[in-house]
Design brief:
mainly alpha, MetI-like fold, 16 helices, globular
């Protein structure tokens, strides 16, 4: 009962939090220079269509004369088309009203609804997010436990050196190195250079399609999870080492229990609590993407979409992305708290 009330209270707190986040972001992007209207005017100037609005004279090769070709009528029509003929606080209120129907508006750049644009880019980030979640937690927990059990051994020292060496390499730099050495850059051609599918993907058999996806998936996935892999492994190891120094572990050993039982049955559950804190954060990974990796591996995902939306001042896409990512972050934090109870039933939210 206490957990249910806690979850309800957290959901109620999410409402003002989301309002605050969207309010701040909305006003910041609207106050920043270079609105979609200005971008559209520049496109009209350089496409030679400025005089079509019935205003100024002919086009000239000089920038100043080009600027005078955009009539006031054209500018007012553009403002009305994009909704910029209203004050910023009215536009925010209209955005909230549309949000109540899960309508984020249309993208100024793609000419489609924001939801459709995000959904079209979402599968790339979703694939890497889910895979990173399972591989990072499953592998890192087992590796961290094994390193704790073998603390100070040759395996522990060598694996720690390797993990920290990998952690010190920026993911985008690792991507460039891997492409150069094993993806047809200058040496080996073990992996495809980029993308998620081969050109002949539709002509492959079912087994061939599975292998083709897996083959394209390996290098980007390694670069995506290289940093978190090291952090989680060392966090798991150090957390377990801290637990085995506590009094209840000494008591368990004094009862004659084996080291395997002491580590895996008594210490592991409490050692998992720090690991659980980051579990909910992986929901945001499903949506975040990585700009540099998506450019290097030619992946048309959320990271590249968000970057282009900022450059193009595509306000509706920016607001849609911020809102969904904020929801994922808040829900992820709630899931982390619930996971605390699963790992340690002693925790009471009442």
């Amino acid at each position: 009962m206490g957990l249910g009330i806690y979850i309800l209270r957290r959901f109620l707190i999410m409402i003002p939090t989301l309002l605050g986040v969207t309010l701040i972001v909305f006003f910041i992007i609207n106050l920043a220079p270079g609105s979609p209207i200005e971008q559209k005017i520049q496109q009209l100037k350089f496409s030679g269509m400025g005089s079509a609005g019935g205003g100024g004279g002919g086009m000239s090769s000089r920038g100043g004369e080009r600027g005078s070709a955009i009539s006031a009528e054209v500018i007012e029509a553009l403002k009305k088309q994009y909704g910029f003929d209203k004050p910023v606080h009215i536009r925010y209120w209209l955005w909230l009203k549309n949000l109540s129907h899960l309508n984020f508006g249309d993208s100024f750049t793609y000419g489609d609804s924001v939801i459709s644009v995000i959904v079209s880019k979402f599968p790339v980030s979703l694939q890497f997010g889910i895979t990173s979640l399972f591989l990072s937690y499953i592998v890192c927990i087992f590796l961290g436990v094994f390193k704790a059990i073998r603390n100070g051994s040759r395996f522990d020292m060598i694996s720690s050196v390797l993990l920290f060496a990998l952690y010190s390499i920026p993911s985008f730099m690792l991507a460039i190195v891997l492409i150069q050495f094993v993806a047809g850059g200058n040496y080996l051609e073990w992996f495809p250079i980029g993308g998620l599918l081969s050109d002949n993907y539709d002509d492959l058999t079912m087994a061939g399609k599975i292998w083709d996806r897996f083959h394209h998936f390996i290098l980007p996935l390694v670069c995506y999870m290289i940093g978190s892999f090291t952090v989680l492994t060392m966090l798991m190891k150090n957390s377990l080492l801290d637990e085995i120094k506590k009094d209840y572990i000494r008591t368990a050993r004094a009862k004659g229990l084996s080291e395997k039982v002491v580590y895996l049955k008594h210490a592991l559950r409490n050692a998992l609590i720090p690991i659980v804190t980051g579990l909910g954060g992986f929901l945001s990974v499903f949506f975040a993407g990585s700009l540099l990796l998506e450019v290097i591996f030619r992946l048309d995902g959320i990271g590249l979409m968000s970057y282009q939306a900022v450059l193009e001042r595509d306000y509706n896409v920016i607001m849609g992305s911020v809102f969904i990512q904020s929801v994922l972050m808040l829900v992820g934090n709630l899931l982390s708290d619930i996971a605390y109870v699963v790992v340690d039933p002693r925790i009471d939210f009442t």
